[in-house]
Amino acid sequence: MTDPYGIIDLSTLKNPKAPEGAAGETGRYEVTVTEQELESVIAGSNRVATLLVVTSSRVPSGPEFLATLRRLVDAREGAVLLATVDADDQPRVAGALRVQNLPTVLLLVRGQLQPLFEGIVTEQELAGVIDQVVQLAASQGLDGDAASEGAAGDEDAAQAEEMSPLQQAAYDAIEAGDLAGAIEAYETALRENPADAEARAGLAAVRLMERTQGADLQAARSAAADAPEDVDAQLLVADLDLLGGHVEDAFGRLLDLLRGADSETKDRVRTRLLEHFDVVGAEDPRVGPARRRMASLLF
User: How do the domains of the chain map onto residue ranges?
Assistant: First the structure.
């Protein structure tokens, strides 16, 4: 990644080598995240719920907080994976995650990222959060073992080696920051095989990156609030919401635009919703209800 593209389902874009544990004192169920390994950690969240922690040794009480978090995660015996990001060593990862304060703790489940909290919290509060994560993982059918993520990552790497030339071209373009080149590669792949679900999801994700590149969230929200009838302003905020992991907000904003809209606006919003569905993934439980509501509003 060369720009802070925010939070999208990066597991649809790339599955590189498995993350290795960091040198030094780390937890038994911990991986250290670098720019090259972020996507594989996201892919691994399809097997095990992951707590993604962005911090720095400069944070007052930060090392003690991280040590407590490691101990609590280890006590769950692999039910949760801890993924740590050093914001000083990996500033572009922190930028991609749109981190504003340190430490920031996020939840990663099935390729989707949700913010949990910022700042130092007590051990009791941490324990409560982790218990809730374990319960959520069980409800989502995630029964993977954090200790096995290294082996799972090897499988992901093997799958990545089997990518088609066009998929590889798209991934290489993303790595180089050439979003137009990635879009072209995905569009070519879809022309050759319209049923290629991975190419369709990848194309939707890269288009989302392109539309939101350089956008300011607060300015966009203000513009949308000041002009609720401005379709372009509403579409941009919906994109930024999706990028930030606020899936329901993104879907809800777009669906609200369909009420009483003219045919041209309905077509634009429908197209954007379908792209959002591709980014999130058809298996996400939020997609089905949103798709049905879209159909009822369109017809």
Answer: 10-155, 163-298
User: Going edge to edge, which strands form the sheet with 30-32?
Assistant: 30-32, 80-86, 49-55, 104-109, 112-118
Provide φ and ψ at 177, rounded to 5°.
Answer: 80, 15
Structure tokens at 284: 């996400």
Single-letter amino acid, residue 100: Q
Angle at 193 between CA 191 and CA 196, to 5 degrees: 115
Angle at 181 between CA 176 and CA 182, to 5 degrees: 80
More confident residue, 35 or 192: 192
Query: Average pLDDT, stretch 11-39?
Result: 62
Contact 146, 80 (CB under 8 A): yes
| Residue 298 contacts residue 258 (beta carbons within 8 Å) | yes
Class for domain 163-298, per CATH? mainly alpha
Q: Which CATH architecture has domain 10-155?
A: 3-Layer(aba) Sandwich (3.40)
Task: Show the tokens assigned to 132.
Answer: 């809730």
pTM assigned to the model: 0.53
List the beta bridge partners of residue 50: 81, 108
End-to-end, the C-alpha distance of the chain in Å comes to 40
Query: At residue 280, what are phi and psi to the nearest 5 degrees?
Result: -70, -40
177 CB neighbour count, 10 Å cutoff: 14
